[in-house]
Amino acid sequence: MFGLSMQHQHTVLGQRTGFSIRSIDKELNETGAPTFFKYQLLGTWGAVFFPEHWRAFLEWIATINIENIEEGCTPGGLLSAQWWVSRHLAERMWTHWFIRFVYERGWYSLYTNFPNREALIVSYRESGLNFNVTRRSMNAISRTSAT
Description:
Blueprint lengths: L2 E3 L29 E5 L7 E3 L1 H11 L17 H9 L6 H12 L3 E5 L34
């Protein structure tokens, strides 16, 4: 395990020809109680990386020619890779290189899965690089407390 994710994971980012991408919500949290699961994709909003894993990534990325897209920075078939390829951002997006790094090692992050799609960290989807106009947040902030 390389770290923790405080965001809600929405989809399984794999390309399956002829199938729509399924929501991970429908496969988890049938009980309504907070649950946790492991997942290889990192959460980019509020990721908590363990120092030894982050250090190993920094040492590894220093050996990679990040301008060589043919070398490939993600495992094949990721929908998120289409976005950076279309914008020629491979050398500026560390996240996709990290996806490859953890995939090659079989590492994963621990995600929360609170009822009602709540999360500890949320994206307010403000206008900018990813969104043309500001939208509402994707999830509510979890107000669940330990009893």
